[in-house]
Design brief:
The chain is an alpha/beta fold. The chain has helices at 20-24, 58-61, 92-96, 101-111, 134-152, 170-184, 207-216, 232-237, 241-263, 265-268, 283-302, 310-317, 329-336, 357-364, 367-381, 385-403; strands at 8-13, 33-34, 49-50, 53-54, 115-119, 159-164, 188-191, 219-223, 273-277, 318-322, 341-343.
Length: 404
């Protein structure tokens, strides 16, 4: 708990091991995946190449970047961002343990997290390009999902996870979702908000996937990641990652929400739970207002199937994440409801405010708003009193071991 408040991290990240594919990828596909190695011949974290294509365009676009300043030369005058500096030492404990499951729990305890839902790092862009062989997409997803399942077994009542889905074929994606939920215990899926092979999120192509999330009672979590080959922001902004990082997380989420709302996804799948993650959420009221502005002109002619207003759909089906220090949180809560918010620490990424995410939130908003935001992830993922009781028991059992 955090200062007596329950805290569910809706979007905490893992650092996948460099040898994940050597250990978990179907041998049939291993010669099509190239991973970087160090001078000792062992795998190291870095750019992965699949079918002769890099999994991120950052390396290609930024080949002429200016030399990066060493961490000691970087200063900040932004107190809330101080912990984001590379030389802060905030991740030393995790680096020393090579980001193992125990380090994950240590990070959770530093923030006061009861339950965390884990998302990938390398996996954010692993399959994020058009035209990928669907069977390769499936094999990569299965490798990651099998690994994260084993990773969370270290403390399954506290560490939950979202399944990576092979979206290059909706039928394969559906089959992998069923496998991950029914056999491995996933509490939801991780999907990107971008258009995939010409299919965007208003398309009937995805109907079976929406239906399965509803039937399995699990959450669909949209998560962008800068540098993915099929992000339109690459076309607009090219090699300048500053542009792309600002635009991709925020704007791609808006596009996905617009598509789903006007298409009637939440009308036809009224029990579907969707999270729009790691993109702040002050954009939500403006988008809802814009759609409602056009309702009188277009609803009858272009969306006669809609029975609720955009805000009503959002307040029934959707949650959007904050990261604690945004000055607009209280104002946004007054417009969409604090109960439609959840919070992401974004641990251990470079732009996270870890380990001060929860501290920033409590300093930034009223305690009542903070309590609702910290619990938002529980509603998003359907966690109950039983889940919290098991998590508390696991934390209690851990205390003597931690003391030793």
């Amino acid at each position: 708990m955090k200062d007596g408040l329950r805290f569910v991290d809706c979007d905490m990240h893992v650092m996948e091991p460099p040898d994940l594919f050597a250990r978990y990828l179907d041998p049939t596909f291993r010669d099509r995946v190239v991973c970087p190695v160090g001078a000792d011949g062992r795998f190291v974290r870095g750019m992965i190449v699949v079918d002769d294509q890099p999994t991120s365009i950052d390396h290609e676009l930024q080949q002429h970047r200016k030399r990066t300043l060493p961490p000691a030369a970087i200063e900040t005058n932004q107190p809330l961002s101080g912990s984001r500096m590379a030389d802060s030492g905030r991740l030393d404990f995790a680096i020393e343990r090579d980001y193992d499951p125990e380090a994950q729990l240590m990070g959770m305890e530093l923030e006061g997290i009861d339950i965390a839902v884990l998302f990938p790092t390398m996996g954010l862009s692993l399959i994020a390009r058009d035209g990928m062989d669907p069977r390769m997409s499936l094999a990569l997803c299965q490798a990651y999902n099998n690994w994260i399942h084993e990773f969370t077994r270290h403390s399954p009542d506290r560490m939950k996870w979202a399944a990576m889905l092979p979206l290059h074929d909706v039928n394969l994606a559906c089959a992998e979702l069923v496998r991950c939920v029914t056999e491995l215990g996933a509490v939801g899926s991780m999907v990107r908000p971008n258009r995939i092979n010409g299919h965007f999120w208003h398309s009937n192509y995805w109907n079976r996937l929406f239906a399965l999330h509803e039937e399995l009672d699990v959450t669909m979590g949209f998560h962008e990641g800068t540098g993915a080959p099929y992000s339109h922001m690459n076309v607009l902004y090219g090699e300048n990652r500053f542009y792309r990082h600002v635009a991709s997380h925020w704007i791609e989420m808006q596009q996905a929400l617009i598509a789903m709302l006007i298409a009637g996804v939440f009308e036809f799948y009224p029990k579907l739970r969707v999270g729009y993650l790691e993109a702040q959420n002050s954009w939500v009221p403006g988008i809802l207002t814009r759609i409602e502005w056009d309702y009188p002109q277009y609803r009858d002619s272009h969306a006669p199937y809609l029975s609720l207003t955009p805000k009503e759909y959002f307040q029934r089906n959707c949650w959007a994440a904050v990261e604690g220090s945004e000055p607009e949180i209280e104002a946004t809560a007054s417009l969409i409801g604090a109960d439609r918010m959840c919070i992401s620490t974004d641990y251990p990424h470079f732009d996270s405010n870890f380990p001060n995410v929860s501290n920033n939130l409590l300093a930034n908003v009223s305690r009542d708003t903070a309590a609702q935001v910290l619990m938002g992830g529980a509603h998003l993922y359907g966690f109950t009193e039983e889940h919290f009781a098991k998590a508390a028991l696991a934390a209690d059992r851990r205390q003597p071991a931690a003391a030793d």
